[in-house]
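[INFO] parsing input record for Exosortase system-associated protein, TIGR04073 family
[DEBUG] input buffer:
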Amino acid sequence: MKTLLSLVFVSLLAATAMADIQDPPGNDFGPSRKLGRGLANLAFGVVEIVYQPSVTNFYEGNSAAFSYGGVKGFGRYILRTGAGIWEIATFPFATNRGTYKPPYRSDVPWIHGGLEEFPPELGFESHYRYSREYESSW
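[DEBUG] output buffer:
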């Protein structure tokens, strides 16, 4: 009788249990990713000083790269460093509208200027589209 009673009790518990077996959309971003993003922005944000003049040169030419590419890179370096410090300090908390997503806007469509989630990579090939661009010679 005890076995039957415990089986009924477990069945009732199992019947009332509700679980979400799907992957929630906010699961891609979490505190560990926020900490990693902050450390990457803090350590490698200085790459923007070199990267932005080369991107500006690619899109707008030598004069633009020489005149404001470095200024743009320095401004992005300051922004990335500040964002990195902010994300390291607040990584345990969901500070951006209750999520762990980056606080800055990514990929601004009308200018070659949206910040990516992680700093650009120099010298290595990657599957990210912002690391290198090749022009075909034929």
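[INFO] The CA atoms of residues 45 and 83 lie 10 Å apart.
[INFO] shutting down worker
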